[in-house]
Design brief:
This protein has 247 residues and is mostly helical. It has helices at residues 77-92, 98-107, 111-126, 137-147, 154-159, 168-175, 184-193, 197-213, 215-218, 225-235, 237-245. It contains eleven helices and no strands.
């Protein structure tokens, strides 16, 4: 029996371009235009990498010390990924509220640098959207290219935990457990991020079909689960089958 794939009423609100509307928790006095963006020549800690005239102090090694330096243990990569996901979800709700970004950074300190790395990469590759318009077709095409698999910024998405190794059908199974209305969208986003790039594309194709073709039945006030399922089967069957085939 073919299982019906339904998204219920929690349509995914994640778009990678939303990252550019989020800034870091640092103020930007040099470009105070009302939105907090990250200069492509800045590091995530706010230092300017463009100045290469730094003084370098060299010292001879102490040959009398024969002990090896065990070094420092960095943060656990999986914990950093988890915090980057949480930082992303936190930052998406901040708008232009700088104190909100600061709270996100305080709550998820390992996640903010990884998230900012995506932002920095996009700005370095595509620049600022003309006039702040993220729908500009040339800029949007650049964003799509650099964020896609094989693109210049794809690995930074992987590092942040926004690209996984699962499948589209796995996203469906995972999202069926997102039943708490208070956390449903965040839960579905994390399910989506657990999939590889192909699975995410397939799932978003289905999601977009529902949003455009079944809005009244699945999203608008008065929508019903029965009507939503019927509409999906009638208008989004190709997207459903493509996702189900991605195991």
């Amino acid at each position: 029996m073919t299982r019906k794939m339904t998204l219920g009423f929690g349509l995914i609100a994640f778009f990678i371009s939303g990252m550019l509307a989020c800034g870091s928790g640092d103020a930007d006095p040099a470009q105070n235009t009302g939105s907090d963006t990250v200069n492509s020549t800045d590091t995530t800690s706010g230092t300017d990498e463009g100045n290469t005239d730094e003084d370098v102090n060299l010292s001879l090694p102490d040959e009398g010390n024969t002990q090896t330096d065990p070094g420092t243990v960095g943060p656990d990569p999986e914990e950093a990924k988890a915090q980057c996901q949480d930082y992303a979800l936190c930052a998406f709700g901040c708008g232009q509220n700088q104190s909100c970004f600061a709270q996100c950074t305080q709550s998820f300190p390992l996640g903010e640098p990884l998230f900012s790395a995506i932002n920095n990469c996009i700005l370095a590759q595509c620049g600022q959207p003309p006039g702040g318009n993220q729908q500009d077709p040339i800029w949007a095409a650049c964003l799509s290219d650099v964020a896609a698999e094989g693109g210049a910024c794809f690995q930074s998405r992987v590092d942040c935990g926004l690209i996984g190794t699962g499948s589209c059908s796995g996203v469906v199974t995972c999202s069926q457990g997102c039943t708490n209305p208070q956390t449903q969208n965040d839960c579905i986003n994390k399910c989506l991020w657990g999939s590889d790039a192909n699975g995410q594309d397939l799932y978003m194709a289905f999601n977009n079909c529902v949003a455009s073709s079944c809005n009244a039945e699945c999203v608008a006030a008065g929508a019903s689960q029965a009507a939503c399922q019927t509409c999906q089967q009638e208008k989004c069957i190709n997207e459903i089958q493509a996702c189900q085939a991605d195991m």
